[in-house]
Amino acid sequence: MSVDALLLIVVGTASYALARQALRPLVEAREREERFASDVAHELRTPLGAIASLAETAEADAPDPSRSTFASIARRALECGELVGDLLTLARAGGSEALDREPIDLAIVVRRVLRDRDRSDEPIRVDATYASAIVIGDERRLQQLARNLIDNAFAHARSRITITVGVERGNATFCVDDDGPGVPAELAPRIFERFVKGPHSNGSGLGLAISRWIASAHGGAIDFGGGARFEVRLPCARALRQAQGDENF
Fold it and tell me: Which residues of 112-126 are buried (b: 16+ CB within 10 A; e: fewer)?
């Protein structure tokens, strides 16, 4: 072995060791963050549920002037419980192993979420186009992803929402767009980060972060397409099975 080759090996090995040493504090900090969020979430969910239950019980027996107060307490406790659940979801280090997997038609999931969201008092027109798009996924999580994007569109649309579900190049696609003001340019690079939300948002700022987690756990991705457009791509069931070597699917 030449001196140059030996030197290259030594330098490469040393660089690798130094890189691992430099990254170790970041990895450890991430692990501490995940443990902390998980511990806090577990500790808070039980008392929040108890508060909501007690407030609902008190509301039933309270005089009229106090009922709205107890109802507000119960509602806020439930909202905080949902927020804690969202934080617990994002604290999980796992990806696909955290999902229940079965063949799911993404078009049916989106259609069901939109039907459940339908309210006669909302003056928003929805133009929806569906084509069957079968994925291997967790129905509950996919419903959560669809609900996040659809609720977000209803919250910001002026008069129209466009929804499309289909298949493109081996991927199931789900796109949501609306005619609202769109994402401010200064927020666009950070729109999928936790607690990032627009100036007129009443949400927690976790919806898009959770949507990204769900898409990633399914082997896909969610992109911001400019304006108010969000695009989800998930591997179709056939493409996924073939990639895993099951040609008989």
Answer: ebbeeeeeeeeeeeb
Q: Where are the domains of the chain?
A: 3-91, 98-243
The CATH number of domain 98-243 is 3.30.565.10:
yes
> Which pLDDT tens digit goes with each residue over 181-218?
999 999 999 999 888 877 777 777 888 998 999 999 99
- Give 114-142 pLDDT, tens digit per residue: 988 876 667 899 999 999 999 999 998 99
Element (H, E) at 208: helix 207-217
- CATH level 3 topology of 3-91: Helix Hairpins (1.10.287)
> 130 forms bridges with which residues in the sheet?
165
Q: Where are the beta strands (DSSP E) in the chain?
A: 102-105, 125-130, 134-137, 160-168, 171-178, 221-224, 230-235
Closest CA to 180 of 208, 203, 161, 199: 161
